[in-house]
What we know:
Order of helices and strands: EEHEHEEHEHEEEEEEEEEHEEHHEHEEE
Oligomer: single chain
Radius of gyration: 24 Å
Helix content: 10-25%
Shape: globular
Largest sheet: 7 strands, mixed
Strand content: 25-35%
Structural class: alpha+beta
Number of domains: 2
Low-confidence stretches: 1-22, 265-283, 362-373
Number of helices: 8
Amino acid sequence: MNLLSVKQHVVWLIVGGACTQAMAQDEDMDGISDSIESGLLNALSPVWIPGEPQQSPPQDIGWMLTHGYIKWRERGANDWIERFPASNVPAAPGQFVSVLRAHAQAKRSYEYQFDYFIDEYRHSRDPADTLTWSRCVAESRGVYAQVWRLDGARAHEYSVQFYAHFGWNETDTPPGCDAGNHEGDWIGIDFDVDATDPQRPRIIRAVYHNHGRQSFIQSPAGLLFSGTHPLVFLERGTNEPWPNPGSAGYWQTLPPPVVTTNRRLEAADCTGEHESSCNQGYTAVREHEGAGGQFLIPPRNIGRLGVPSPDSSRAFIMEYPGLYGDNWSNGCWIFDFLDTSSPEGPPFGGNGAKMWRREGWSWDGPYAWTNYANRSVVYASASAQPQSGDGSQGMPVRGLSGALPLASSGGLIVLSSGTYAEMPMTIRNPVTIVSGGGTATIAP
Length: 444
């Protein structure tokens, strides 16, 4: 992909005997020229790799809107006031945007939810208009993006973000249990990019947002590529992104040391006969082996908040603050602790904080990429510890298996009295365990 240099975007005009500088086109008025943005998005758009062949493709927002409706109510109220369209007759995406703008002009602040006309549409299946992965590639559907500059970023350094919308999240729970299932699913991948040479932009580091946590890839050495395009491995059913293939919660091989995370997925209050399954992320993290093919879907640039988009689907994403579904399950006979609902869109709610604006992470600044896996000392607690901590002395993890992933190669694990191994453990790096009876080193 050839990009024009910034210098080529400046044209000098002679107006009334004076020189006037005409800047390059910038449709979303964010200070970054459209040609720079499109060049970055085209060069770095991910290759999406579903976890299984039958996995549903990303769902284009225009397709979604013609297969459902939005409803609204006063904030905090139980009853819905109205819906659009009023009956199950498809409406154009632009009509939805007009409804939202009319509410905004009237200074109404409603709660919104989207719902499909029929459940089958969650999976992008319509006998007259079914979406497929190949169709998404050919028609540039289902993947959205933005380019922006962080405060204090160096010259030519950008955040390049990609978002994909899916109509359904299917959590792999035991028979008779739907805990964690929900309509609507927005996933996000975020790259810090050095575009000093705009013809060869380079990913510096990346964030793959995964089940509410962040997986930090602190160097391009932790990514896999097809040409200039990073690979995104999607979990089967739950659609969550990974930079590498692997089974439920793990990589196929030892993760590169540049790949870390800020949260260990462990189900709180998950005890008894099902404890082993819960601690392995049984309710959430699924296989992402890359068995469903590879698809390079051209993204659509959705711009920035506050700037109206001429494209009605993109305008809906930027102006709709509600939930992308009205069906979800928080618990069942085995799991009753999952905080589940349909999500908001990329700029809003929890997604807006963690993905769109990079808020709520455990770091001091935009470049403080914390290596959570590089621990010299990790404390493991007694089995009576009510909830797992972060491995510090005052906040020990609950058991030995929780300590092992946090310890660095050759690091120390300090065991308190009553420490237990609550599930089968995989030793990935050599660690040294210190207890009252002496010191022992465990290696893979």
